[in-house]
Amino acid sequence: MNKRVDNKRAASGLANINYAPRVFGCVLMCFMLITLFKDELTFPLVTAMVFNCFIWPQLAYLHAKFTPYKKKSEHLNQKIDAALYGLWVAVVGFHVLVTFGFFLVTSINSLLSGGFRSLFVNVAILLVMSLVGGYVVGFEYNDDSSISTTIIVLSCIYFYSVTVGVFNRLNSSKLNHQRLEIKAQKAELEEINQHILRLNQVSSQIMNTRDLAQITDTLKRAMQDVITFDQFWLFNEQENRLVVNYASGTAINNEVMEKIQTVEIPSTTNDSIVSKAFNNHTIFFARNLSRKYHRYLTPTDIRLLSKNKIKGCLVVPLVIQNKCLGVLVIANTKLPLILTKRKREFLARYIKYFTTVLDNILSFDALQQAKQKAEQAAKIKNDFLANMSHEIRTPINGIQGILQILHSSLGDEYSKDLVNKASYSAKTLLTIINDILDFSKIEANQILIDKVPFSISEVTESIENDLSLMAKQKKLSFIIDKSNSFQDGWIGDPVRIRQVLLNLASNSVKFTESGGVTLRIDCKSSEGQNHLIIEVIDTGIGMSNEITSKIFDRFVQADSSTTRKYGGTGLGLAISLNLVDLMAGSIEVKSEEHKGTAIKVVLPLDLSKSDKTTKSITNNAIPKLDGCHILIAEDNEINQVVIRTMLEPTNAETEFVGNGKLAVEAIRNKPFDLVLMDIQMPEMDGIEAFLKIREFDDKTPIIAFTANVLTSDIEEYAEIGFTNCIGKPVDMNLLYDMLDNATKTHNVNDK
């Protein structure tokens, strides 16, 4: 592209160069012809003279200027010039001086515009056309050799030669000037390319680092290729103060440099050119800090610049998106700071790039700090919830355990009914605690969905067992309706599915005063995927469309009167929606005020090919543990009473200790068949006690007996090596089943 433009300019220049000599030469030729034909001028001769001397130069110029191949066009014009001169040689009768003049003009023009090749071609054209013209007009020789004619012809030839020399001299100077300009432009482009290359090198050097000192040092060295300076300071804002975050200098000793790095400038006022640059986004440049600049300097500036022997300085705010990230000070202690327009442009590129990099670093650091704060806040919240869970579950364990013991010992139905109500209240409190913990785990993305074979029939039957008492008390029906196409045996997470259905069904029972609740189970296959469909239908109070659209939001209930009348946290449905989303399912709600609600859950699950499914614990048989020695490490006295009472029917021999340290000593001094180990205990916790026991005893089964029931806790206990884990409050049937399995697995009764 550039080469094409240069050729265009060269060709246009050639037309301009030849235009003036051609016009002047034609005027002289006209004057010379008039002198020769002063006595015999005819109309054809005058017409030919007007065309050749006045019209042809304009046509030749336009032809060379506005045709696609301008250089070739001008060379063609010269050939036409030679042809016209050849014709005039014949017309003037081969006059010796005139013929010599035409040959001289043709030779000069050809040599200047096209070289020797053009000279030979054009002279040949002139000879041929003179012969052709002589053949047409006759070979009549004109021997007019008068002194006046000779003087005029020679004068015209002389003046034409001088004119060509003058114009070529002028054009040669112009061309030389253009060449110098082009050379300067090339040097400028080369300098720009070098700095762009340098900027690319700097970019690649700092691409893989976020070290501000290293990045600043790299850019400082790059800037020193543009401008001579020996001081480079970077100010950043810290607690409303501008502080030197990076300082580098070669002409100032370490003591002075340390003083510079301790300088603090208020960023909220304009007490310094640095703070002015920071607040007003203005640049300050002093080539030489002479006294005329002192009116701009404050005492802080004088202490920072003048006393440090700074001769020239440049103060630049690092601004991006109308926000100042800091202030850059470039200074020289030996010489004035020389900053040309070109150097300003180069420095502006480096400073703009540095500002972008600095913004990325500060943004990344801010994100990291925000992330750390969020993670720290989440950890604090999780730790708090875990501790609160432990502290609340411990007394509930005592309440629930005593109620279970009372229920098995009471004979009259009235007393059992009272115990059942108290037990239900304790379970309700535990449900609220579980909801809060589950919601916290969902927010922290800590819930994992298992995929194991299970029976949905067993899940719904366990829900019916849990809610049947509440339904009977409210005189409601609770029906499980299975469609004719239903088939059992699925692969999924039975615990989470049960949690979702229990939340939905318990809400239906809670908000229904008459009629009943139906769990409808169905399944279907769509696009090669099986779906388990469960509908919870009630005849309760129902909801408006406005409430239906918000019912799955956390902490949302129908209105304040609903909360007062029915209670609850407003988390159950939000947790259910999140769990269904984790299982890639969907929930659909249809409700009408005072007529009831229907909630449909669709879960994409695979059918189980195995007959093995999770079984609910229905074995209420008390295991016979005669002769089995069990150590219980528990620091809460009420829980000790509860577990002792629960274990009495098993005939096991029990021994209690109040902390982990006593548990280690007890096992070291006496063999036990089984250990129930609380986790949070004084002096030594359960995990530390377990690890110390395993140093000398790797066979005795140890079950974690704890109120820490988060999934992460249970996984930690399994990873450490605990035989099993039972949570508080203790379900007596679950405890019996776990003890039975542990004793059979480790052959305790055979010892």
Termini Cα gap: 99 Å
Average pLDDT: 78
Q: What percent of residues are in strands?
A: 15-25%
What is the share of helical residues? 55-70%
What is the count of β-strands?
A: 19
Sequence stretches where pLDDT stays below 50 over 5 or more residues: 1-12, 558-569, 612-619
Radius of gyration: 52 Å
* Sheet with the most strands: spatial strand order: 3-2-1-6-5-4
Shape: elongated
Main β-sheet description: 6 strands, antiparallel
Task: Give me the secondary-structure category.
Answer: alpha/beta
- Summed up, the helix count is 21
Present the secondary structure layout.
Layout: H1 2-36, H2 43-65, H3 70-91, H4 96-137, H5 147-206, H6 212-223, E1 231-238, E2 241-249, H7 254-261, E3 264-266, H8 273-280, E4 284-286, H9 299-304, E5 312-320, E6 323-332, H10 341-409, H11 413-443, E7 452-454, H12 456-473, E8 477-482, E9 490-492, H13 494-510, E10 516-526, E11 529-538, H14 545-550, H15 560-566, H16 572-582, E12 586-592, E13 596-604, E14 606-607, E15 629-633, H17 637-647, E16 653-657, H18 660-669, E17 674-677, H19 686-696, E18 702-706, H20 711-720, E19 724-727, H21 732-745
Parallel strand pairs: 8-10, 15-16, 15-17, 17-18, 18-19
Antiparallel strand pairs: 1-2, 1-6, 2-3, 4-5, 5-6, 7-9, 9-14, 10-11, 11-13, 12-13
